[in-house]
Fold this sequence. Notes:
Blueprint: H1 3-34, H2 38-49, E1 54-55, H3 56-63, H4 67-79, E2 83-87, E3 95-99, H5 101-140
Antiparallel strand pairs: 1-3, 2-3
Helix pairs in contact: 1-5, 2-5, 3-4
Amino acid sequence: MTSHEVDMVALWEHLLRFQRSSVAEMNRTLVESFGHSLDEYDVLHQLAGAEEPLRMGDLAERLLVANSSCTRLVQRLVESGHAQRSPGPHDRREVRVELTAEGRRLHRRLAARHTRDIHRLMQPMVDELRALVAPSESVSR
């Protein structure tokens, strides 16, 4: 490999480690603070952004998870009173899901915390990238 390729692989590995550790840290803070996982937050977030109740299959696609995983996540939120299921308008076999009023309130609280966590975790990387770019910008001027 060339030194450039070695650098690219090292950067890729650094980004993967950063992503994994950041997701684990964000999950930990949400569970400790609210008793809900990052995966559950993702369900709340997708439902909060939907204009109408989502079909379970569509929600699974948005979450990038298997239907069975989506069903388990939604079940937890239904049991805690944050989501509700209903039959489809034209086919009672179809299941749709939406947030309850309590689910919308929970989403707002989790979203505020998640946004702060993203900022806290990303800021050091942003600063590093700025420091890397700054010398090349001053040379090109």
